[in-house]
Amino acid sequence: MSLDTTMDNKDLEQAVQILEFPTFAAKATKFIGKPMELALDALPNSVKNKLGEYTEVCMRTAFRAVLLTVNKERRFQKAHNLVHKGLVTATGATGGFFGGLSMAFELPVSTGIMMRSIAEIAREKGEDLTTFESRLECIAVLGLDTSSPGASQDTNSSKYFYIRSSMAKEITKAAQYLAANAISDESSPFIVQFLSKVAERFGIQLTDKMAAELVPVVGAVAGGGINLMFIDHFQRIATGHFTVRQLETKYGSARVQTEYQAVLNRLKDKAGHIVYDLAEVAATEEK
Fold first, then answer.
1. Closest Cα to residue 154, out of 14, 1, 20, 247?
2. CB distance 25 to 36 below 8 Å
3. Which residues, including other chains, have CB under 8 Å from residue 224's CB and lie 6 or more apart?
4. Structural domain tally of the chain?
5. Of 19, 18, 14, 24, the residue nearest 226 (C-alpha)
6. CB of 61 within 8 A of CB of 202?
7. pLDDT tens per residue, range 185-241
8. Among 229, 200, 247, CA closest to 5
9. Which H or E run contains 228?
10. For a Cys-Cys bond, which of 8, 152, 208, 227 suits 3, CB 3.0-4.6 Å?
């Protein structure tokens, strides 16, 4: 059993690949030329002591960007991914030039641009950004990276759906609060709980980003390159997430989740065969 059209099946498989096998940490490691663990260990104490503060600032920026500045009309309008990549790269290059001292400035600006990009991707996929639920789903994208620890204890099931379900209650409560109140109060318990839930996971990615940026590679070049990888990473997650939501609107959540798991099983099985074949080749060569 599969979805009704070839395009829908192709879109779903692409979404599974994006959401279940994210690549930011691997790309950043290759870019800086050292394991991420070493980069994290080398983070200055001045930065380590402010990780929570930086994450909180980014979450507030994301909240304001999505609720106050995003054009909520024109559903299905094509997203300007390249424009946002260029802006974030330039911001990162500026931050890289000035080093760790620029973090307090660079992170909120980059996050704001990234959130506008995510919202445009959501809109392109048919999300109704006049609803608070859809706008909060944009913020939730920041917490959907499945490579972080604690995504799921079950290695066979979807990490994406596990994380998504863990945030569902907070999204619903926050959306209901926003719909009932004319003023978007960031200090509301419902908003705080939602942003904290996302921050638990986004903070891990943000720490990796800062660690990679502060490795003494080539200053501005490193900052711009890492920022480009960072926004590309979350643009891809946004594309995967809102593709799944678009398919759920068309086919229903239960059917899409079943097909998603089937695709995931096939991809894992295929990957297992590749690993087995490589091991067999290596063993043959040793003989």
1. 20
2. yes
3. 89, 90, 92, 93, 96
4. 1
5. 24
6. no
7. 777 889 999 999 999 889 888 888 777 776 665 455 566 788 888 899 999 999 999
8. 247
9. helix 220-251
10. 8
With 0-12 CB in 10 A as exposed, 13-18 as middle and 19+ as buried, what is 230?
buried
Contact present, 141 and 243 (Cβ < 8 Å)? no
- In whole angstroms, what is the distance from residue 168 CA to residue 177 CA? 14
Rounded to whole angstroms, the Cα distance separating 89 from 91 reads 5
Expressed as residue numbers, the domain containing 110 is: 6-286
Place of tokens 């839930």: 197
Residue keyed to tokens 């990549």: 85
Over the stretch 154-170, which tens digit does the pLDDT of each residue have?
667 899 999 999 999 99
Query: Is position 79 within any domain?
Result: yes
Q: Which residue has the tokens 């994380």?
A: 163
User: Quick one: tokens of 127?
Assistant: 């999300």
Report residue 262 as tokens.
């089937």
The tokens 């392109």 sit on which residue?
124
